[in-house]
Amino acid sequence: MDDLILTYRKLVMPEDINHAKTLFGGRLMQWADEAAVLYAMCQVGTKSIVTLKVSEVLFKNPAENGDILEFWTRKKKIGKSSLTVDCIVTRKTIDQPRERPLPPDIDKGEYHGDPKGIILSCEFVFVTVDENKKPTPHKLSKS
């Protein structure tokens, strides 16, 4: 539906690492949810949204201490009160400075030619809610 945009960056720190010396999957999911909800709030124009569903989560490659992760998001589907957001997490390559970040190549399953550059891919469904936490229509038009 839309192009991927860079929504969020995180630095993997020692407290984010598990016993296998890689990033905890749960921590990565927390960050992905944060990135996706930030994107969704900006799209629907309200902070009154909740996560309804997370699609199949694919942990494609591990992240390690010191990695800079980039969270790419885009609209996938617009419902009456819902918004489905794709989230792709990549490992930033700092040895190749760029003026503008370039999105991952989803079709090839790589990030700047690196097949291990994509860390995670998943889909979030968010729902706008009213003051009683009941679904309410948002202002996005279905396209």
Description:
With 143 residues, this protein is α+β, with helices and mostly antiparallel strands. The protein has a single domain, classed as Thiol Ester Dehydrase, Chain A (Roll). The protein has 1 helix and 6 strands. Strands 1, 2, 3, 4, 5 and 6 form a 6-stranded antiparallel beta sheet that branches. A hairpin with a 3-residue loop joins strand 4 and strand 5.
CATH topology: Thiol Ester Dehydrase, Chain A
CATH superfamily: Hotdog Thioesterase
- Quaternary state of this entry equals single chain
Order of helices and strands: EHEEEEE
User: How many strands in all?
Assistant: 6
- Give the N-terminus to C-terminus distance in angstroms: 8 Å
Largest sheet: 6 strands, antiparallel
What do the pLDDT scores average to? Answer: 91
Assigned CATH architecture = Roll
Number of domains: 1
Overall helicity: 10-25%
- What is the structural class? alpha+beta
Q: Helical region count?
A: 1
The CATH first-level class comes to Alpha Beta
Please compute the radius of gyration using only Cα atoms.
Answer: 16 Å
**Approximate strand percentage:** 25-35%
Low-confidence runs of at least 5 consecutive residues:
none
The best one-word shape is: globular
Task: Describe how the helices and strands are arranged.
Elements: E1 5-11, H1 25-44, E2 49-54, E3 58-59, E4 68-78, E5 82-91, E6 118-128
Antiparallel strand pairs: 1-4, 2-6, 3-6, 4-5, 5-6
TL;DR?
This protein is an alpha+beta fold and 143 residues long.
